[in-house]
């Protein structure tokens, strides 16, 4: 395991954050005994998994959250004299959300999903029968997971795989599930290509990716860090990067180091393509630098080490974003959701 | 990837001692062996090369200037061949060759000592006034003395006047003996005096190498302003001295970056010592445990790292993480300051595609994992190229330079005929 199980007192952790980064949030472990009593056990577990980064990327977090909320809805009984549409959100759903946010700042997809879920609850009449309302919410969650997660992944990897040709050397950074799916899909399509992986030595997801690609018979060049970036970028024929989220101004929010790769690629005239589900698009937030929305890596955070989890790639360094609805520049599909 | 500060001094001393203790051929072989094993690397190569060449001049047999030049060329090309990834070796060889040519020609025209005397006066004057503060330093191509020693220290001008003393005697005795002795006799005596002169010159080069870091640090408070957030790429002795010197004058914040995992024992030790020193001056330090640097750049004011070599086009050979720092800084229009003594200025062009020197990958991939090793073409780059357009200031021991002055500096330090010396096959 990457995360040591030592419980670190949060105050001490935060006190060593340099002042210029002190506005940036950090995931923290809340002992289950200290959690709000209204938090559902399924949510408690998900919160712990998020705090320890056992569930890490945006879509996995979204899926786990929705499944846990499903349990919350199933277990929900409207108190006498109340209606689900009035009672459920403030008294049941919000404590779950607060707890999850405390464990780790919410990712954009969770925010989007929760907004849609609340809108659904509000759409019920005050006298909608409880069973009908619960049924409607569960159905919505299932549909949502099918469309925005499963189908989105399928469509994106299928479309992105079409952009990989025989003889290509495709460069990627770290490990992103959409990029991985795309490579496997392209291989399935019979394309003969190689992958150049640049890894983050503090995360090493790229090693896992290289294993899985090798098992699929895809040749891999592996760089353990950003050293030799220029050389790697020059050798590559195209660059596929996974995005964690996309801001309203087209900036891409992704694993720290992604922007460095995108800049190097753009500077050498290579096309950078980002992959992202539309549920990760944020229509309201605008970010021009990585210090606006970010998270401190609690694992790397000590009195003499400091690390941000994400960086922001401005739209001029991204040639295109492939989503399940359409492909375009970072800016246009922001309208899609 | 220079070794840590603490491990450096003894190993360099030991190296010099062991080289001195052996017969010439053996010590050259020993040095080549160390170079090939990368046990002497980075900034240490320059000093070690100068030491070896001093042995060559002192111990080998030669009867005229041509023979000496050939000796130095052939040993030099063997050293360069042993460590093609350390172009600084070639620089030092060229400096020594240039030095020999200078001393020889001074011997030959025995001589307009007024010219050289006034030159050394100028240098002494410059020395008294101290290093020029903000202004561009003295060495412009216009007013330059006819020597290698733009960086002439007090030591340099002193030894020069010693030389003049000797040559005065020579010049004075020449008319007397000229009538009775044939010319060859004069040539012979001058060859005898050439050896000590060249050895002195090599000492000067060694002094220059040893003092470069401190002289560069002397410009720190001009470059670093109060309240700055400075991104510094480590490990590098030059950068460390620069920061400590700046810390004695300014309050600022340093963000350290290193490609090496800062949690590794060696990395932590090296940074810890530096952090302590900076903390003592009230300078904030933050270690970034990070690969990518774009994320932090909006907070940074300037980026500082040291060059392994400065090519004649202004491009740099650097420890590979430094190139990521330079690129990120450029993307945010933040100034990039590359530190390096003029002895690192190399009169060659970078090869078109520097793939970067690759190093040990076992720290990143466990070789116990058979599948992984089989699967991976692991490329752990340890040296990288930074194109000239990413560098704003070249901070040398002569002060800050721009790309447009590189040609003048190279012309000051190298002779045109030595630029391609390494093409001369080494004698075996």
UniProtKB/TrEMBL annotation, chain B:
Family in the record: Belongs to the eIF-2B alpha/beta/delta subunits family.
Lineage of the organism: Eukaryota, Fungi, Dikarya, Ascomycota, Pezizomycotina
Tree of life domain: Eukaryota
Subcellular location: Cytoplasm, Cytosol
Organism: Echria macrotheca
Binding partners and assembly: Component of the translation initiation factor 2B (eIF2B) complex which is a heterodecamer of two sets of five different subunits: alpha, beta, gamma, delta and epsilon. Subunits alpha, beta and delta comprise a regulatory subcomplex and subunits epsilon and gamma comprise a catalytic subcomplex. Within the complex, the hexameric regulatory complex resides at the center, with the two heterodimeric catalytic subcomplexes bound on opposite sides.
Bias type Pro residues, positions: 130-144
GO CC term, one of those recorded: eukaryotic translation initiation factor 2B complex
Molecular function terms from GO: guanyl-nucleotide exchange factor activity; translation initiation factor activity
InterPro entries attached to this UniProt entry: eIF2B_beta_subunit, IF-2B-related, IF_2B-like_C, NagB/RpiA_transferase-like
Regions that span the bilayer: none
Keywords carried by this UniProt record: Cytoplasm, Initiation factor, Protein biosynthesis
Disordered, as annotated region: 127-146
Protein name per the record: Translation initiation factor eIF2B subunit beta
